[in-house]
Amino acid sequence: FNLQRQHTLLKTEILNDIEKAYDNCEFTYGPATVHFEKNFAKLANTEYALGVRSGTASLVVTIKALELEPGDEILTTPTTFSASSDAIVLAGLKPVFADTKIRTGNIDAESIKKILSEKKHKIKAILLVHFHGIPCEMDTILQICKQNSLVLIEDASHAHGGLYKKKPVGSFGLAGCFSLYPSKTLGCIGNAGVITTSNADFYQKIRMYANHG
Q: What predicted TM-score, i.e. pTM, was given to this entire model?
């Protein structure tokens, strides 16, 4: 892993684009960002993509836009970077941890079923993580969500361009959340994130929350 080696190949092209953005005073949002969002939506096979300031922000904005009640719970995985759980707590909700599979590190669908069968939680959504680019067991998890009326959020920060049965991650749930931290599969100069969705109403909500409501 060598950021300098990667960026040397792109340096001239990137600096030229930065100069254009500078000359056009596109310091926060503009045609270049819109162009990126449209292309990222194509990559994820979704109708919409929204650029935000970090992968953590993509999670916080998405969870806020669910508009759940304080004290509601989101079932998630402990085997990942803390941002996944941080976002749940920052939204005033409670994370409930399922076990993960030894071979992949991904959330275990059988553990999800066991927790839901206990009937003692106020779980309203599942936030899974496609760990190290390996997609979760989407067929089973989607079935669980449907049977239990749960919202599905995909943290795909490790998995840009990853496929499950030829379908891109970030397109299965209500929303997909991506980090563009410099060390990610698709990284940027600085920090950023993306939210993907094909739900028009939810897209309007995340745009609102991302722009201070």
A: 0.94
Helix, strand, or coil (residue 198): coil
Angle of helix 200-210 relative to helix 55-65, nearest 10 degrees, comes to: 120
> Measured on CA atoms in the order 172, 73, 177, 84, is the torsion positive or negative?
negative
Strand, coil or helix: 158: coil
How confident is the model over 109-134, as pLDDT tens digits?
Answer: 999 999 999 878 899 999 999 999 99
Residues 202, 65: contact at Cβ < 8 Å?
Answer: yes
Tokens of residue 112, six digits? 């999800």
Phi, psi of 52 (to 5 degrees): -135, 180
| Strand, helix or coil for residue 4 | helix
- Give the CB-side neighbour count of residue 116, counting CA atoms within 13 A: 21
Tens digits of residue pLDDT in 149-189? 999 999 999 999 999 999 999 999 999 999 999 989 899 88
Positive or negative torsion for Cα 114, 149, 196, 141: positive
